[in-house]
């Protein structure tokens, strides 16, 4: 389809490769800031369209009725994915630390809900949104994200996950970092808010 999400992630500075000191203090060989990709409306729209295509390809009987995303990171891609699927796009947000539906958003028991995120790392925020969906009495029918960077030790997801890009990102404690051992200079990329 002539679509190369990795190229777009790199060219927008959303995917950096090198030697990074993360906000957690861990070192890594790659750094992802999806907002730098999604800040371009034409790229965000395309990403939403491609995710919608992959979702329907993975399950032609999906027939979603609503997309839900975690604020803030999932907002833009959730909205674009909802646009491409022709369904509502709502978002969950934290209230006193707990992911919840606010602003009058609601899910019906017969809704077919797709959870959409920008980046899935541990699956933690995905799990929190799935809990929001289940609290409404519904089981999500699919999960989608722009970048799937789960490690081998990530927990099993509650539904099939489709992604535009699957990235292996290695993370080390500073004392175990092979890039430090080789003397490669490390950089601290723009602060990433904890998720
Ligand atoms: Zn290092």
What does it look like?
The chain has 195 residues and is of the alpha/beta class. The chain has a domain at 44-169: Rossmann fold (3-Layer(aba) Sandwich), CATH 3.40.50. It is 29% helix and 27% strand. The protein has a six-stranded mixed sheet, sandwiched between helices. Strands 1-2-9 form a three-stranded antiparallel sheet. The longest helix has 18 residues, at 41-58. The protein is globular, with a radius of gyration of 17 Å. The structure holds zinc ion. Zinc ion is lined by residues 19, 27, 174, 177, 179-180, 186.
Amount of beta strand:
25-35%
Poorly predicted segments? none
Rough outline: globular
State the end-to-end CA separation: 33 Å
Determine the structural class based on helices, strands and strand pairing: alpha/beta
Proportion in helices: 25-40%
- Classify the fold: give the CATH topology of the domain at 44-169: Rossmann fold
* SSE run: HEEHHEHEEEHEEEH
Average pLDDT: 93
Small-molecule binders: zinc ion
CATH class of the domain at 44-169: Alpha Beta
Total of DSSP H or I helical runs spanning 4+ residues = 6
- Largest sheet strand order: 5-4-3-6-7-8
Q: What composes the largest sheet? A: 6 strands, mixed
For the CA atoms, what is the radius of gyration?
17 Å
Which architecture of the domain at 44-169 per CATH?
3-Layer(aba) Sandwich
| DSSP summary, beta strand count | 9
